[in-house]
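Before relying on records like the one below, remember that each one covers exactly one chain. Contacts with other chains, cofactors or solvent are not represented anywhere in the record.
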Amino acid sequence: MLDWDFPRGVASVALLVRFATERGVGVSAALSGTGLDLDTIADPLAQVEAHQELAVVRNVVAACGEDPAALGARVGRRYHATAYGIWGFAVTSSPTVGAALRLALHYIELTYVFCVPRLCVHEDSAGLRFHAEAVPGDVRPFLLARDVAAGHTLMAELLGVRPAPEADGAGIAFARELLDRPMPQANEHTAALCERQCRDLLARRRDRDGVARRVRELLRGPGGLGAGMDEIAAELSMTVRTLRRRLAAEGTSFRALVDELRRARAEELLAGRALSVEQIAHRLGYAESSSFVRAFTRWTGVPPGRFRPA
């Protein structure tokens, strides 16, 4: 499973849609192709799959027509602690900054990140590094800038200090001694209660049937992207009709999952420049390279040869 491939609350999608509408983008355009509607994003208990939020991000970036990284940074500054629900309260009530960061990363699946942060501690300094390698290339600049800005916003609001951005834009740095500083709103009983609720919520999410997730796991396996829906259904001990119905209930389809994984893998292989377009097509399960070229052009708007860096 990719680090970011987990179900998430709907608040981030709602925030993205509000941001888009403020810039004249219609709700229908922002939610196009996601399987989501206004009733869903208005429901505070609703959950969405990661690929649905990715689709919203693609719609917003395309419709706004601005520099994706700059756009992502502006969006990221809107992710206040209250946007994260119980996770935000758990972080806020932790005893020290170090404890808050460790808790935050332990329950990272209760957030909306795609560029998953890691805590780095050195002799005199510490920081958070946001890893974007597994994020699809077309939305990577937006999401990296968004997630870094959100992390910066949280630390600034909760601690009253502004950590320094890393030169490459993929992290934030601060003095190591900050890890031992008491959190301004620390509360032992609230922290214990909030962590218990985080633990229970995460367990419930992980216990969901998650047919889409199981399909992704099979598709990522050896020869998976060349498998048909009937083969995947058999692996899951269900009929094709049942698989189709279960995926639809989770807001996706077999074709959408195959395209999602093929696109991410194709961008990774094209960036590496080690394989030809024909070899990449074969790796992705296409019988003919022309079929891959058509599909990739549909996904990104440009053929593989133009997408590949010079």
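The longest strand covers residues 125-131.
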